[in-house]
Amino acid sequence: MKTKLSAFILLFLMSVTSVNAQLDRSIQPKPGPEPSISLEVPSEFELKNGLKVLVVENHKLPRVTYSLNIDNKPVATGAKAGVESLIGSMLGNGTTSIPKDEFNEEIDFLGANLNLGINGGFARSLSKYSERILELMADAAINPLLTEEEFNKEKEKSIEGLKTQEKSIDAISGRVGDALLYGAKHPYGEFVTEETINNVTFGDAVAYYEKHFNPNNAYLVIIGDVDLSTVRKQVKKYFKDWEQSIDVSTTVPAVNPNAQYTQINFVDLPNASQSSIAIKNSVDLKMGDEDYHASIITNDILGASFTGYLYKNLRETNGYTYGANSRIRANRYGAGSFNATTKVRNMVTDSAVVEAMKEINRLKTEKVDAQDLKDTKAKYVGNFIMGLEDPQTVARYALNIKLNNLPKNFYTTYLQKINAVTADDVKRVANKYIKPENARIVIVGKGSEVLENLEKTGIPIKYFDKYANAVDKPVFSKPIPSGVTAETVVASYLKAVGGKDKLQNINTVLTNANVTIEGAPFKPTAVIKAMAPNKESMEMTIEGMGTIMKQKFDGATGYREQQGMKVPMTDKELDGKKEEKGLFPELYVDVANMELESITTVEGKDAYKVKVTTGDDVSHRYYNTETGYLIRTESTSEQQGQSVTTTYDFSDYLDVNGVMIPQTQRITAGPQIITLKSTDVKFNEGVTDADFN
């Protein structure tokens, strides 16, 4: 039996080899027939309260999706910006008759998904549970559980989120860029601040829900294993009590005019280790316009993926960035936009701007290569067809036809129009909608390192603060007063924090701290121990997970341990640790290796910038000119072939037994930002030699 089986396998392999031998792989396979798109036309009905329902029956799989869209025109909320996000975050978490925990537990038990926000919601379940999920969705939409206690929690979370974004170049770039492009009073240009969030009361949030979350302009798209007559009865049963509110239709204001000339709109962020660049102009383009399909391919060629001009230039050719992309966005209210973005190292900010503008102008002046155009269209078509497997995509397409007043065959002819785009179309559309001559180049970065070279580009520069207010050009260096040297700055620091005698009597320091890692969903705690002259220990834990990271140095050797992996420190790291002396370095510094370079600005405060040279390594320390406190250190190292600047910001100095210690440390290393906030600091207790093993 084994012999016969082996022989069969051998014959099979020989037959495959024979077939392969007959194939000429130098000849490209002929393309298959052009795919056709067949989207079912939804059945429609409308409730008396105005809710419009679109139903697409699809019995291939036993599942159903519900997409609810509240199609009100965008409105600005002014001094109470953020009210919509606050009330939106409270929706879908229980109803007036079902507590939050019971509500969420039932959805989990049914293996379903249900999410609601101020603009609508989405639910998905197996068809056998579909009626119950529809009932829960309707109950949560019409009778949400809105409590002041939950509102206050969401308010605190929102404010905490804003604080973590305070030094984020992405958040600042988005806020400033939109405010300048659309106008700070436009619905798309206004932004949320801690002040506007604090202006919102619980009553404001409930009133916003009652006015704006309504069936007047609502659409419910149902796709899946349902029967039209049955689902019609179910929708009427569960949504008939949803009452209309007053008419909320409004006129959407016009966007700001584009810039009169190419200009850099610069925001100085002194702690930035890289620059955010966004080249943008407003666009009047709608989905129903004849240029719409060509605009998609035009943008794909420029920067929608790793095959785009921007990506190839800025990453592959020049190595300035990890990625670069662009987008031409259509909008039915005349508030579309073109936006090309990237993040680059400080030292190449000016070069990245020049190269990005070069690629944009190349698209406008040169015809795209025929093969590149063909490949771009083929890739887009493939992704489009794959997307049709997602019911959410199909629901969005059905809704797009309604909301944008598109012809019913818009998507059945979609790929035909994509494939009809020519090189002439690309060039024409690029010139019509991409306006480098009227573009705002919004840059958020470290002005002291990038502005000098940006000025050499010849592009006019205007300056703004983090909230899009026009400001004067930042001053990065001020005259140093007579008699002030690196030595006097260090002496002032030692005196300010308690004096040499007190500092020299501290042999150990034990610090407990709360840790915030920007972008992470968890908040660890850390125990940090130090012993003179240079022993260090840090252990980070997460509740329910235990210790997630250790770092130890016992004066001679050291290691890092994470996820069970223990990695010894490199020789260079060990040499650096061994060079450190004492728990307060200023007690032992050689002022001959220090140079007072300038007075600069750190977080709006004047600071002495002191250069420290240790062998081949150069770092900087910044001391507040008024208090004498150390407020920042800065160093640069090579990591994976790239220069990475690590910045420590120190703030909230507290008196601990007569010594001033910074309660908050903010560590910025490349894109990663970690904040440590001390909850307890002890001197000369709680630390032993065993802690550093």
Report on this structure:
- By secondary structure, the chain is an alpha+beta fold.
- The chain contains 20 helices and 26 strands.
- The chain has a 13-stranded antiparallel beta sheet, with helices on one face. A seven-stranded mixed beta sheet has the order 9-10-8-11-7-12-13, with helices on both faces.
- It starts with a helix and ends in a 10-residue tail after the last strand.
- Residues 1-23 have low confidence and may be disordered.
How are the SSEs ordered, and which strands pair?
Elements (H helix, E strand, L loop, with lengths): L1 H21 L20 E4 L5 E6 L5 E8 L12 H8 L9 H10 L3 E5 L2 E7 L3 H13 L5 H17 L4 H14 L11 H6 L2 H11 L5 E7 L3 H12 L23 E6 L5 E10 L8 H12 L5 H9 L6 E6 L6 E10 L3 H17 L4 H18 L3 H13 L10 H6 L3 H11 L6 E6 L1 H9 L5 E4 L5 E2 L14 H11 L3 H5 L3 E10 L7 E7 L3 E8 L3 E8 L4 E5 L2 E4 L2 H9 L14 E9 L2 E10 L2 E8 L5 E10 L2 E15 L2 E11 L2 E12 L10
